[in-house]
Each structure stands twice: as C-alpha cells, then as structure tokens.
From TrEMBL:
Domain of life of the organism encoding this protein: Bacteria
InterPro entries assigned to the protein according to its UniProt record, in alphabetical order: Acetyltransferase_Butenolide, Acyl_CoA_acyltransferase, GNAT_dom
Domain N-acetyltransferase stretches: 1-140
Organism of origin: Pedobacter mendelii
Protein name per the record: N-acetyltransferase
Length: 142
C-alpha cells in the first residue's frame, strides 16, 4: 500500500525503508532504543509489518507492527523526524497503519508510550483496563 499527500509518501513497502536512517534515529534520538545495534534494527524490520514516511526520497518517519495478523498487533518504533513534526504526519501514519488490510479483525492492538497518549487516544487506544493481568519480562540495556 502506498499513499501520497502534500509531497509525502506513506508506504508499507519494505524495499523503501532506509535501515541506516531508522537505526540512526532509534539509536541516537529515541528514549526507548538508545544504542540499539544496527543488526537488531535490521532483524526487527525483516520480521515486522513496517511503514515509512518519505519526502524527496528521504526517510522522515517510521513505525512497525509486531503481529501474527490474526489476533494481535503491537505498535512500536514510531517516530517522525524533528524537522517534520507538527505537520500531522504521525496522525496520518497511524491512520494508514491501523486500517491496513492485514490488521483488520484483530482482538488486540497494543503499544507502550511515554508521552504520546493523546495521539493514540484519537485512534481508540486506552490505558489497560486490567493492568494486573499483564506481565512482561523486561531486560534493561540489553
């Protein structure tokens, strides 16, 4: 799938993803993946349903779903480059992603965020109703 709007291209075509650009952002700019190795980013892209935002052949945004495409999808690694924020690109990206044909009819869409709650609420995300039922193994600074 691919759409164009105001000179930006939103696409799920993995061949367009600039792994080096995604790695640079995640490893240097994100709070959730500081210092992540390039090899790990490349493997995560390979094994996920990925989406990019492009302007003049440059990667200006990225996000991915970790999903079985049947019951569950976890949204992660969402970003828009600083100079392109405030243009509504993250809203357009999330809308493009959540209505993707491979993700219709799932039982659960989930994510974690430090500071973008209001963005995700616009798409129906809410805090967990029973957080005591959720568990995780979290390995810090792997």
């Amino acid at each position: 799938m691919e759409i164009s709007e105001n000179g930006f291209i939103f696409s799920d075509n993995k061949n367009l993803i600039k792994t080096g650009a995604v790695h640079y952002y995640l490893s240097t700019e994100s709070y959730w993946a500081k210092n992540i190795p390039l090899k790990t980013v490349a493997k995560s892209i390979k094994n996920s349903l990925c989406f990019g935002i492009y302007k003049n052949n440059n990667q200006v945004g990225f996000a991915r779903w970790v999903t079985d495409k049947a019951t569950f999808a976890y949204l992660c690694d969402v970003y828009v480059e600083q100079e392109y924020r405030g243009l509504g690109l993250s809203k357009k990206l999330i809308s493009f992603m959540i209505f993707h044909p491979d993700l219709q009819g799932l039982r659960r869409y989930q994510l974690a965020t430090l500071d973008a709650h209001e963005l995700y609420r616009q798409f129906g995300f809410t805090e967990l109703k029973n957080p005591e039922r959720q568990m995780a193994i979290v390995i810090e600074n792997i």
